[in-house]
Specification:
Elements lengths: L3 H29 L9 H29 L4 H23 L3 H27 L1
Amino acid sequence: MDNYFWFSLLIAMNSLLVLGLAMNVSRLRIKHKISLGDGGNQCLMAAIRTHCNALEQLPIFAIVMIALTYLGTSTTLLSTLVIGFTLARIFHAYGMLYRVFIARRIGAGFTYIFQFIAAVSVSVCLVF
């Protein structure tokens, strides 16, 4: 299977996640009639932070993943990183939105682990 498949899947799945999170913010803004900021509404504040956190994490991971793809990294590593990162982001979003602290911690922890593995993998590919 072409390695670009995994990068494309990362972008597709996480774009859908970011879109869903953005739509949730819009839904809550309409529901609570809040056009700017969070208006002191805890649900809207959590939705905004969840959306922002996804936007903070995805771009750098995507850049590292395209670097790994260009470097010809194994399909096994690419698939593991893409699936793992995506599941971690879903866990994190769930934990943030529904105030399930353990899901948030697991999601954040695995996000960092997969980012670290990806970054180290680029370094290793460049050295060897």
